[in-house]
Write a structure and sequence with these properties.
The structure is a homodimer of 303-residue chains. Chain A contains 11 helices and 12 strands. Chain A is an alpha/beta fold and 303 residues long. Chain A has 3 domains: 88 residues, Winged helix-like DNA-binding domain superfamily/Winged helix DNA-binding domain (Arc Repressor Mutant, subunit A), CATH 1.10.10.10; 103 residues, Periplasmic binding protein-like II (D-Maltodextrin-Binding Protein, domain 2), CATH 3.40.190; 92 residues, 3-Layer(aba) Sandwich (D-Maltodextrin-Binding Protein, domain 2), CATH 3.40.190.10. In chain A, the strands form 3 sheets. Chain A has a 5-stranded mixed sheet with strand order 4-3-5-12-6, with helices on one face. In chain A, strands 9-8-10-7-11 form a 5-stranded mixed sheet. In chain A, strand 8, helix 8 and strand 9 form a beta-alpha-beta unit. In chain A, helix 2 packs across helix 3 and helix 2 crosses helix 4. Chain A is elongated. At the A-B interface, helix 1, helix 2 and helix 5 of A face helix 1, helix 2 and helix 5 of B. Chain A binds a DNA duplex (30 and 30 nucleotides) through helix 4.
DNA sequence: TACCACTATAAGCTGTGCTTATAATATGAG
DNA sequence: CTCATATTATAAGCACAGCTTATAGTGGTA
């Protein structure tokens, strides 16, 4: 009896779920298997134990007294197991985290604010990697990737968490000095100066903005400057070199100080969505959650 | 991490065993699987948890600190599970038991002694069934079968326990009165009277005894009486009707009281081996163990 | 009665969990 | 040092456990 039941403890795991929900289909959803599988597992378990655990009442499966006893026991046992596994696999809060994101984000947002995080959590060391691509988290030993774009979710491996944490519009921006020397009132006025674009802009490209604003003749524009990342583009623009397209969160401070302006205040048709990508089963999950929480709050308070 | 580990708790069961033994091959023996399976399971578990649980030291697998922590946790959790399952599946000592055995045993041994058992354990009800065959325990709702013969083990389903509990010689016996009226000194003298045989004697038949004793002419013997069970045979014999072959444990009391005698004290070549047949996973195991223990002691004390 | 939201069951498929065979490893003895 | 031994590790193969889909069955409600 006991030997038979302990031969397949996984049935007990499914049992705990079905018993808690008093519903096979809810258990199925939680366990990510089909209702039929749950039903068959429960039948198997009842056969193994030669007792009845559930009583069907309409749409739900009420527990027999024996079922209730077993629920209590399984919950206690799995709690012990969970805590035990936690203890050996989950690292303490103190330790290191490796963060990967775009060069623009790391340079313009993260590095300037990192001292705030470190002041709050001096026991957490942050290592920052910038990359324009979606690298493999496991291969590169990355704990958290902060990614931007419209297809992050689709391009993220299903074994990883992909958490949306906000979005920003993209605007054409130039230096205040340039805006004083040239009268920029309409989208077509931008064609009077240099336009700084990224070599890989994705969907946040100038042609899309010009199309969206119904601007003619941009195809004949000659003054293009191509750079590798938004921080480089902004560096050029801050020094009076035309316009670039930038997500608002990246330039909040420069807009406030008046270094950068948006004379043509029409956003790009594509917004920049932001995502955290990490493994929820990471041993560093406790540390990760702290960083993610901090970053989310920081982003919200500066937006 | 945790989710991954809890997806296959059976690995943790094997772990507890391997960790306790600090040996994969010992764990394999206990779990009745191959050493290679254990090795692969432990590798899988270490991968799932992304930690090292064992350190190989020659012929044994020492535990890492993490392995020790997990051993402690798994032992605790499985203890809780075991107790929980026990509580819902194992019946109390009080209750009923259904015992099946031959008619001879039930009539001649068990029924006369049952009051002794009931005096000791008034909360246990015994239901007795007699049958000459090996019935299916589960089908007939038999909790314990007491069986005799040379091939009980081979004829018992492997899912059941088959416990040998002793053996007895078989002798030709007759009434004291008959022994006084006819001089029985040698095996051939038995041919002067009726011989009571069973319709299904198995290997405990008269021809085997006569061959064993080198007795000539038994094939021409005309005074045969055929009955269905040993208790019927003994009933006839007690009333002066010739000889029958009987296992000693069945006639102990009648030998002591002088009702039956063994004038030719040569045992049958085949002894009667006794077995308990039951399901060790039975919910009534607690009760069964009590009965089995009592019967074993009772049999030993009267033999 | 019909409808609905669930559970139960049957049949089929595939990948998990074993097996066997053999390689690799650690240890001790000579 | 070599060799033997008793273990664990690994690879390849197989079959059946554990799922799936499809559909039947059930209980409750209007």
């Amino acid at each position: 009896m006991i030997k038979r039941a302990l031969k397949n403890i996984n049935l007990l795991h499914s049992f705990e779920c079905a018993a808690r929900h008093q519903s096979y289909s809810k258990a199925a959803a939680e366990l990510c298997i089909s209702q039929a599988a749950v039903s068959q597992q429960m039948r198997q378990l009842e056969e193994n134990l030669t007792i009845q655990l559930f009583l069907r009442k309409g749409k739900s499966m009420l527990l027999t007294q024996q079922g209730k006893t077993l629920l209590s026991g399984t919950q206690q046992a799995f709690k012990v197991l969970e805590e035990s596994i936690n203890k050996i696999t989950v690292e303490e809060i103190a330790g290191s985290l490796t963060i990967s994101s775009t060069q623009a984000f790391t340079t313009l947002w993260l590095m300037p604010k990192l001292s705030k995080f470190s002041a709050l959590y001096p026991d957490i060391n942050i290592r920052v990697m910038s990359s324009p691509q979606f690298e493999d988290l496991k291969e590169q030993h990355i704990d958290l990737a902060i990614r931007f774009g419209p297809r992050v979710k689709e391009n993220t491996d299903t074994s990883l968490n992909c958490e949306y944490f906000g979005e920003d519009p993209v605007y054409p921006v130039c230096s205040a000095a340039l805006a004083k020397s040239i009268n920029f009132k309409a989208p077509k006025d931008l064609l009077k100066t240099w336009l700084v674009s990224l070599d890989n802009p994705g969907c946040y490209d100038w042609p899309s903005w010009f199309e969206y604003t119904n601007t003619q003749g941009y195809q004949n524009h000659q003054q293009w400057t191509e750079v590798h990342s938004t921080d480089m583009a902004l560096n050029a623009v801050l020094n009076g070199h035309g316009f670039t397209l930038a997500a608002r969160y990246l330039i909040i401070e420069q807009l406030k100080s008046g270094q950068l302006v948006m004379p043509v205040n029409i956003p790009h048709p594509n917004v920049v969505k932001r995502y955290f990508v990490y493994d929820e089963n990471s041993a560093k999950i406790a540390r990760l959650n702290i960083f993610i929480q901090w970053l989310t709050q920081e982003m919200n308070s500066t937006n």
